Amino acid sequence: MLIRYAIKEFMIEREYQNLSKNTIKAYEMTFKTFLNWTDEQEIKIIQDLNTRKVKAFLSYLKNERNNNPTSLNTKHRQLKALFNFLVSEELMDSNPADSIKKVKEDIKIKTFSDKEVKEILSYLRRIKRREDTLFAVRNHTIFLTLIGTGLRASELTSLKWSDIDLIQRTLKVFGKNRREQTVPLSEMLVRELAYWREYCLNQFGDLSSHVFVNQQNKPFSVNGLKCFFKRLSQVMEFPETRCSAHSCRHYFAKSWIQNGGDISTLSKVLRHSSIKTTEKYLHFWGNEVAEDYDKFNPLSRLPL
Question: Which pTM value belongs to this model?
Answer without folding.
Answer: 0.67
